[in-house]
Amino acid sequence: MNVLCIGDIVGKAGRHALEGLLPELKKEFDITFTIANGENAAGGAGLTPRIAGQLYRAGCDFLTLGDHTWDKHELIEYLKEEANIIRPANFPEGTAGKGWAVVNVGDALGGAHEGHKIGIVNLLGRVFMRYNVDCPFRALQKIVAEIKKETNIIFVDFHAETTSEKIAIGHFIDGDVTAVVGTHTHIQTADAKILPKGTAHITDLGMTGPYDSVIGQNKEKIIERFWTGLPVRFEVAQNEAHLCGVVVQVDLKTGLAKKITPIQRRLA
Questions:
Q1: Which of 48, 50, 38, 49 lies closest to 14, judged by CA?
Q2: Which among 73, 102, 71, 106 has a CA at the least distance from the CA of 86?
Q3: What is the pTM assigned to this prediction?
Q4: Quick one: which of 118, 109, 90 has its CA closest to 5?
Q5: Do the Cβ atoms of 139 and 123 come closer than 8 Å?
Q6: Helix 11-28 / helix 49-58 crossing angle, nearest 10 deg
Q7: Structural domains in the chain, sorted by start
Q8: Phi, psi (5° rounding) for residue 191?
Q9: Catalytic residue positions?
Q10: For residue 251, is it left (φ>0), alpha (ψ between -120 and 50) or beta?
Q11: H-run or E-run covering 50
Q12: What is the pLDDT of residues 33-89, one digit of tens each?
């Protein structure tokens, strides 16, 4: 089984890249299930129910979020009802929505792969992030124990700032989950690998959005802010779009990863 994990979808350019590139990618790699981080899909910060629907229609089966989860207020009620979207699990208890889910893959494919389930976990890092969240390591350990009652195929989206925290959590949970993929920093790292005990890992999936930019934002505005120190308003770039992510080949017997393949594609 091949699972495609797509990095942070940024603004309109990211959505266009998804619509234009995802159908062929799914055919090329015989993708069974697609997980995408959608927390920047609405105007570069946040997600709305309408745009979530657009991402599903483009071919995403499941959406994860991050530190911009609450940027669009209308998402709060949506998270209480929508089954195929999760926010970070280590937000405080009682927060709207859920932080992990178990999905029947056959539901996404009209019966194909019936009986196979995927557990999906979303976590937020604590280093240099704006929210005071619970420990992601302890939260992940507890969640994995619960998910393993139903399936040993488990994908983790760790939305964090530092490479050290993302690499550490991969080794911490190595052998207990299928894959740990990092999101948030928008630049795909060159370290996709299978860890010693069989978990696929990449420090950051990269961004699905405007490539000629500074992490999706208008580069002139970002440079001006660095140059002047003034609080210049950011603008989402609208130029050529790329789709970034990885394809993870899953061993259905063990739930571990057989192969991880980085993906970077440009929308023509």
A1: 38
A2: 102
A3: 0.94
A4: 118
A5: yes
A6: 30
A7: 2-266 (3.60.21.10)
A8: -130, 25
A9: 68
A10: beta
A11: helix 49-58
A12: 999 999 999 999 999 999 999 999 999 999 999 999 999 999 999 999 999 999 999
